[in-house]
Design brief:
The structure is a single chain. By secondary structure, this protein is an alpha+beta fold. It has five helices and three strands. It has three domains: 4-12 and 65-107, no CATH class; 18-57, no CATH class; 127-176. A three-stranded antiparallel sheet has the order 2-1-3, covered by helices on one side. Helix 3 (127-137) crosses helix 5 (164-176) and helix 4 crosses helix 5 (164-176).
Length: 177
């Protein structure tokens, strides 16, 4: 039987909706000014529609509900879905950026989510510098990166033109299999 490296059981994530400060005084004043003028809130909350006569009925939204799956060593997992399906929420929970409302995540090894293709890539840095930057983002120590640097560069197939993110990502995928 294959070794299970990731197991998700009854995973759910719920968010509370409502008027929460925007984070800046300028944006809070903008919200207030739009309200005074009878215009649509520029920071419309999730669940509301752009029609001022209709209001969302719930103060809560489930981003994920009762997700169950497991991944065995050597398997590949793809997460596909429409906008708002919970793909990014699942990745944030897996990489421990946020915690689930209910359920559990059991994993062996490190998990880091790449929510955007360009995450962590800095165009003004060298390939080597990008490898160290992205290694740090993925939770690797400087010693680990230094020890594996030649292997990462070789595996990338880019040689001296190595792009840190892709090299590290491809290397991480290879080592998980």
């Amino acid at each position: 039987m294959s070794e299970i490296i990731l197991k998700i059981e009854n995973l759910s994530k719920q968010y509370r909706l409502g008027l929460v400060g925007t984070g800046t005084m300028q944006d809070d004043l903008k919200r207030w000014w739009y309200k005074i003028r009878g215009k649509e809130d520029p920071f419309l909350k999730i669940g509301d529609v752009n029609d001022r006569s209709i209001k969302g009925t719930s103060d809560y939204v489930w981003a994920l509900q009762n997700i169950n799956f497991e991944v065995k060593k050597g398997e590949v997992l793809g997460i596909i879905g429409k906008n708002g399906a919970g793909k990014s929420t699942l990745l944030k929970i897996l990489s421990k950026i946020t915690s689930p409302t209910t359920g559990s995540v059991k994993s062996r090894g490190r998990i880091a989510s790449l929510l955007e293709v360009g995450t962590g890539f800095h165009g003004e840095m060298t390939g080597r510098e990008n490898i160290f930057l992205n290694g740090a983002i993925l939770g690797m120590t400087k010693t680990e990166i230094t020890a594996k640097l030649d292997e990462i560069v070789e595996f990338s197939g880019c040689g001296r033109r190595v792009l840190g993110l892709w090299a590290l990502y491809r290397y991480a995928c290879k080592t998980l299999q």
